[in-house]
Write a structure and sequence with these properties.
It contains three helices and two strands, in the order ααββα. The protein is α+β, with helices and mostly antiparallel strands and about 80 residues long. Strand 1 and strand 2 form a beta hairpin.
Length: about 80
């Protein structure tokens, strides 16, 4: 996805986007963990996808994790 930016993904398209990024099977297998808190991320708890050191990381729907991500991006 070099040079490409995704701002939002409709719920109907989420599985295709995750598969395209190589994350779909990991999500379905319960292998994805929140970058901030380490909790297992499911389709229901997935809040965000973001680039980090050349890979795509995921964020759970915990408000404190979102705040931490925002603080880290601002600093």
């Amino acid at each position: 996805m070099t040079g490409e930016s995704i701002r939002a993904v409709h719920d109907d398209d989420l599985d295709a986007v995750l598969d395209r990024l190589g994350l779909g099977r990991h999500l379905r297998a319960g292998e994805l963990k929140c970058k901030i808190c380490g909790a297992i991320v499911t389709r229901e708890t997935l809040q965000a996808l973001f680039p980090d050191s050349g890979t795509i990381k995921v964020l759970c729907n915990n408000v404190s994790c979102m705040k931490e991500l925002i603080r880290g991006r601002e600093g």
